[in-house]
Design brief:
The structure holds two protein chains of two kinds. By secondary structure, chain A is of the alpha+beta class. Chain A has 20 helices and twelve strands. Among the domains of chain A are: 143 residues, no CATH class; 100 residues, no CATH class; 139 residues, Phosphohistidine domain (Glucose Oxidase, domain 1, 3-Layer(bba) Sandwich). In chain B, 43% of the residues are buried. The N and C termini of chain B lie far apart (45 Å). In chain B, helix 3 crosses helix 4. Chain B folds into two domains: 142 residues, Dna Ligase, domain 1 (2-Layer Sandwich); 124 residues, D-amino Acid Aminotransferase, Chain A, domain 1 (2-Layer Sandwich), CATH 3.30.470.20. Chain B has a six-stranded antiparallel β-sheet. Chain B has a five-stranded antiparallel β-sheet with strand order 1-2-5-3-4. In chain B, strands 10-11 form a two-stranded antiparallel sheet. The chains are: A alpha+beta, B alpha+beta. The interface between A and B is medium-sized, with 13 and 19 residues.
Chain lengths: 609, 279
């Protein structure tokens, strides 16, 4: 940890920048806003990726508007790093802001009271805006959003990139960015799904004394979704591999990168290889994380899929958690119990419960399916467009390498040959290289004039879901507290994984420890005995998927990845949100599957009985 | 047949079914939507043959279920004292109430408890003090459908606060009536003018507790937040209640204190007494 002693500037004051990160603002008004780093971008972002991400995020403001939030998000590339700024839609006059800031310092008590009133007002406003959507959430998704999302994907699938002239490709790039922005909008207006889940969870906990959030979310589990569908198909592939000695042998003996060429030479592996290609064609349209446009898709490089198969193939057959029926039975039992308890309750309560239950159940599916369609497929196609451009330019000798295209802006690409592209690429590469050695300050611009005590229920839902780490000081050595993400207790060897490239070290029964999991990581959940994340909440992706996999999860710990090290034996108590060190340097032993299997059993609530 | 149905003229006889059941029986005759049920007359207290009683109970329950198209008969079992004359408002062992009782055996058990408490030492002592017979304490028991009310209300056909006889006052809240009657909840208040049934007053309270049926009894729980500040009655319901209170006042010829329940869109009349506190 750095021992920075820089004092936080007061509200409304400029934030000083370190000498190696001085900022020249293109528009001086931007210096009055607060800019924050984005957790996903710890390294410099290439200009073209910034353009795509920026378009997507700007589109996402549609979601802010829907929730009645009075600000917009902008993504700026500052000194090669991506920063997110919250821009008030109608900024109050500077004098008002100053007065508010003054009141905050002079009479914090009065200020707090005022802000909580503002917050409550916003909360009411958001609920009024979002409740109608929650009430018809299924048709909202199935009849309004999903068809348009599929239509955009179908458009990309129908484009014959190879057949386009360079001019056509330029027009197509502009069209692509337009559609990225629209998809960002569609992604933004799906966010009421978090609101639906959190409204349901809050009502459930109110109605049933002693009930936890995890109890509530059990009523939404076990519906088929695109994530589990793809993951189970990969698991079934591993069963086929296990029963074909040649395939099993190849998977066990060879490094992930060599597996496919070796399979191609083996006659006995033909069927398996065909099935694997079929899986990749459908599920491989994903990047290693949503915006990792600079990295290969799984179709280009199937290593992550192979690594998962290598981990799966040594695992025994009995995997009840891979059967949706188990989860569905558990869910239906909980739903029936809740309905019995509510039988004598006033009708408006029963009706509200049923409405929110339905919305939350649909939302749990949308939570995964929107990833499949937007976060994975869309960006897979965008990468293809960019690579086609890069390929053409490299072929024409305008660029040295295909991937250099990422260092250009859409404007550069539209302007064509008159620009010294190679020089631009070189300059930008150098700049990114230089800044890669600098730690970007977490905040730039001006400190917010005041802090919102409560941004309303949508913000609350978001915070419960995706953004915040639990604000718990994890001072205790060898123990970390977070939020319960998925119930159960499991022990396993810690594997701290920062990117999918490191995922190969996760062995069956290990505990996956990471900052936050990205949608394409989910097949790892079949290998892991538990999941621990620094970020996220109970509605975050890691927690939702862990529940579907019936493995314990502790999320929002803030510091698990820096507390635990590879090889330590740790215990994850997902029900209470606690992770603790059991012993140092547990030897990794991929053959010893017993503990993992037992953990899974202990995690199952007593269904029989 | 030992059991006496509500609305049956035989059930108007206070000496047979007790004061409470006789009154409700008359209401059932006048206004048909009183939760249906039957009385176990005083004679059964000493003479009931357990097996016969059980058979009859089972038959009565299945009749009720068929008649009202109920999936289940959920009962309120209440003692109905014979020598209760209104002036002695209540005394020990004569005011037992068991709510949310399901099935013949559970009902018989509740009835037995009512009888036992009437024979209890405490009840007998009270009777001695009141100069009543201690040899044969007489108690009837009323078994009535427990309506799963969405909203319960207490309605006065006069304003008990201002004393105005031109107004009707309605107190209403979520769930069963116990939280209103017991005073644990601050209910919504509506004032209706008798002359034209105009709603002239409306105070929507933050209604925190409510009583609901829960496994073999009732339970006071928190009203979920989304519902607390919502009006428990709409205008149509307010007017329907006011109209019925007016009719009852005219029939009874005195200002009435009425208990109501709404279940779905059906208004049930539960109790009707004279207002005792009016100046």
């Amino acid at each position: 940890m750095s021992t920075s002693t820089a004092r936080t500037p007061a509200a409304g004051q400029p934030i000083p920048t370190p000498p190696d990160f001085s900022v020249i603002w293109d528009d001086h008004r931007d210096s009055k806003l607060t800019w924050m780093t984005i957790p996903q971008y710890k390294t410099p972002i290439a200009p073209l990726i910034h353009a795509v991400v920026g378009a997507f995020m700007v589109g996402g403001n549609a979601g802010m508007e829907q929730a009645g939030l009075p600000f917009e998000v902008r993504i700026e590339r500052i000194n090669t790093y991506a920063y997110m700024g919250m821009v008030p839609k109608e900024a109050p006059p500077e004098a008002v802001m100053k007065a508010i800031g003054l009141l905050n310092r002079a009479a914090p008590g009065v200020f707090k009271m005022m802000m909580s009133k503002v917050g409550a007002g916003m909360s009411k406003q958001q609920e009024a805006a979002l409740n109608p959507l929650v009430e018809r959430f299924e048709s909202y998704w199935l009849d309004e959003l999903l068809p348009e999302i599929k239509q955009h994907i179908a458009y990309f699938e129908s484009c014959n990139l190879r057949g386009m002239s360079l001019d056509q490709l330029r027009a197509h790039l502009a069209e692509t960015l337009k559609r990225v922005e629209r998809m960002g909008g569609l992604h933004g207006v799906i966010m009421p799904m978090l609101f639906a889940m959190s409204q349901f969870e809050e009502l459930y906990c109110e109605l049933f004394e002693g009930a936890t959030t995890l109890d509530a979310l059990r009523l939404t589990q076990g519906f088929d979704n695109k994530t589990m569908e793809g993951d189970r198909a990969l698991w079934r592939l591993s069963r086929a591999a296990r029963s074909t000695p040649e395939v099993r042998e190849i998977l066990s003996r060879h490094a992930a990168g060599e597996v496919i060429p070796v399979l191609e030479k083996s006659a006995a592996s033909r069927q398996f290889l065909a099935d694997l290609h079929k899986w990749l064609a459908y599920c491989g349209q994903r990047l290693n994380s949503a915006f990792a446009l600079g990295e290969s898709s799984w179709i280009e490089d199937p290593t992550p899929a192979i690594q998962n198969l290598q981990a799966y193939v040594v695992m025994p057959d009995l995997r009840p958690e891979m059967e949706p029926a188990t989860l569905a039975a558990e869910r239906e039992k909980s739903v029936a119990e809740a309905r019995t308890k509510l039988a004598g309750y006033p009708q408006p309560i029963v009706a509200r419960f049923e409405t929110l239950l339905k919305a939350a159940q649909v939302a749990a599916v949308v939570h995964e399916d929107h990833n499949f369609w937007i976060d994975q497929r869309l960006f897979y196609h965008v990468r293809r467009v960019i690579l086609e451009f890069g390929g053409r330019l490299a072929q024409a000798g305008v660029l040295d390498a295909v991937n250099d295209v990422f260092c250009l802006t859409p404007e550069d690409l539209q302007n064509g040959r008159d620009i010294p592209m190679k020089r631009l690429v070189q300059e930008r590469k150098t700049e990114m290289e230089q800044f890669s050695h600098v730690i970007p300050p977490p905040m730039l611009g001006t400190m917010p004039a005041f802090e919102m005590t409560d941004g309303g229920s949508m913000v609350r839902a978001l915070f419960k879901g995706e953004l915040n780490p639990a604000n718990i000081s994890n001072s205790e050595m060898n123990k970390v507290k977070g939020l319960p993400g998925s119930a159960g207790v499991a022990r396993g060897t810690a594997r701290v994984i920062h990117s999918l490239a490191e995922a190969g070290k996760l062995q069956p029964g290990d505990v996956l420890v990471t900052v936050s999991t990205e949608p394409p990581w989910t097949p790892l959940f079949a290998t892991a005995s538990a999941v621990v994340t620094d970020g996220g909440g109970v509605l975050s992706h890691s927690a939702v998927v862990a529940r579907e996999y019936r493995i314990p999860a502790v999320v929002g710990t803030g510091n698990a990845t820096t507390t635990f090290e590879d090889g330590q034996l740790i215990e994850v108590d997902g029900s209470n949100g606690i992770v603790r060190l059991v012993s140092e340097n547990q030897q990794s032993d991929p053959v010893n599957l017993q503990p993992a299997v037992e953990n899974r059993k202990s995690n199952e609530p007593a269904l029989a009985g | 047949m030992n059991l006496l149905w509500l609305g049956d003229p035989k059930s108007f006889d206070v000496s047979l079914v007790g004061g409470k059941a006789a009154k409700i029986s008359r209401l059932a005759r006048m206004y048909h939507r009183v939760p249906d049920g039957f009385s176990l007359p005083v004679t059964l207290m000493d003479e009931a043959h357990p097996l016969e009683l059980r058979d009859e109970m089972i038959r009565a329950i299945s009749d009720l279920m068929a008649c009202h198209n109920l999936p289940d008969f959920i009962a309120a079992v209440r003692s109905s004292a014979v020598d209760e004359d209104g002036s002695i408002a209540s005394f020990a062992g004569q005011h037992e109430t068991y709510l949310n009782i399901v099935g013949a055996d559970a009902i018989i058990q509740a009835v037995t408890r009512c009888w036992e408490s009437a024979r209890s030492e405490r009840a007998l002592e009270y009777r001695r003090q009141q100069g009543l017979s201690v040899k044969r304490p007489q108690l009837a028991v009323l078994v009535q459908q427990l309506v799963a009310s969405d909203v319960s209300a207490v309605v006065f056909s006069a304003n008990p606060i201002t004393g105005s006889r031109a107004e009707i006052m309605i107190n209403a809240s979520w769930g069963l009536g116990e939280s209103i009657v017991g005073g644990t909840v601050t209910p919504d208040t509506f004032i209706v003018l008798k002359t034209d049934l105009a709603i002239t007053g409306r105070i929507i309270a933050d209604k925190q507790p409510m009583t609901v049926s829960a496994s073999g009894g009732t339970h006071e729980v928190d009203v979920p937040r989304f519902l607390r500040a919502q009006a428990s009655l709409n205008d149509e319901q307010i007017v329907e209640m006011a109209k019925l209170a007016l009719t009852l006042e005219v029939t009874m010829e005195y200002p009435v204190d009425v208990e109501y329940a709404y279940a779905g869109d059906k208004l049930y009349l539960l109790q009707c007494r004279p207002i005792t506190t009016l100046q």
